[in-house]
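Hey,

The postdoc asked me to send both predictions to you directly instead of through the lab channel. I've kept everything plain text so nothing gets mangled by the mail client. Protein one:
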Amino acid sequence: MKNQSKNILSNETLITNNRKSINYEGTFLERIIRAHPLIYIIFRFLIRFTSIFEKDFDGLKLLNFNEKINILDIGASDGIAAKFFNNNLKTDTIYCFEPNKGYVNLLRKIKIKNVIIKPFAIGNQNSHTNIMYPRYKFFNKFYDIITYTFYDIKHLNHFLLDFKFRKNISIVKKKLLIRKVKKFNKKIHLVKIDTNGFELSVIKSLINTIKKDKPALIVEDNVQTKDIYKILKKYSYKSFYYSTSLKKFTKIQTKYSLNKYYLQSNHLK
């Protein structure tokens, strides 16, 4: 099975744990893509070769950075976010944290000089945790759909309802390496977190860096939003969404608001 298995890796996750309030998955294109696992797999493979990315990341272009910035890309997947940062921001070093071996191999292939790859997840201590994701069988070959990686079967089963045809889907369970974060040699200006439900744990593990450097944060929105904000507001952060239609930050979540921004006053021009 290992020789037949192929990792189908996407550039970003278009799903969130509170997707009902966003209705992004209700678009005509999204319904077609998610109708069948094979269509989704092909689309996710092809999208890696495009410049398509989450629309609300355009808010990063409005932030006030007065120098070249150092970035923590946590949940870096295949490096599409790193490419976006380099194409749209004045970047110095990008630290890409990604525990999935398939993604790590793709990160190494992009050969961006200012990217430093960290092949593990971030936590408060060195440990392991179980992860689960679907595997699709097609003509005796197996395709791992890594974008649907979750930490418990309940959430995974909920999101598998996206697919109308689920007959040949099985669940794979693996161990994920977690390491405690050490101090960074450089000041961190921006932190991006997309970890399918592990965002709160990441915030807690980075709290010393957050207290010291006061970076801008962009976090995939999820059910832990209130707990995350409760922590960050102690350090003078305010929370925002980026409206792609108004092209400005807003307190109100809009249709394409997949991510939440946590900003200091100096980040806003």
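Protein two:
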Amino acid sequence: MRNNLKTTLLALAILVPASGAWTVANEQLVLQPQSRLWIDGTSTIRSFTCKAAEVNAVVEVNGANVIPSLLTGEKGVKAVQVTVPAEKMDCGNGKMNDHMRNALKVSDNPTITFSLTNYDVAKNADGISGTINGTLDLGGVKKPISLQATGAPVGDMLHVSGVYELRMTDYGLKPPSLMFGRIKVGETVKVGFDLLLKS
């Protein structure tokens, strides 16, 4: 009985510190409510913007209070997944919303997802900049993408921003058209993101 008790206490002594270390090593940066993601596009009539009403992100980092080290160019980010409910994209016009949701195949693919594969980062005069590589799941099609982003401090937060040029037809998506085809949306759109992350 005493041997069993000693064994149990020894196991707890080993596991508890290990468990605590695991928790610290898997901290997350929290996406702030001010964060934005949008799509800028063109048509035969005028340009347009569709805004994401909701953006969700899980950003796993190495250790707590990692933002200062990230801003020196250290690679402290372990994993990133960003999700956007496609049905909540708002183009500021009910008809355009319907056409855009149809084009994005929202009924079958309600979520747009980006997952980080790897990245390169370097310090510059204003903060950091680099290339983010990952997989974009859009309209039921997954493709690898690379995009440029910059990061800068805002108080105790990290501001990450960039623009990615996306061709809808690469994902099997047909650009919306209105007025019996007289108004056609260009197949290339620009996805902008302006994200605030806090430890």
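Summary for protein two, as requested: The chain has one domain: 26-198.

Thanks,
C.
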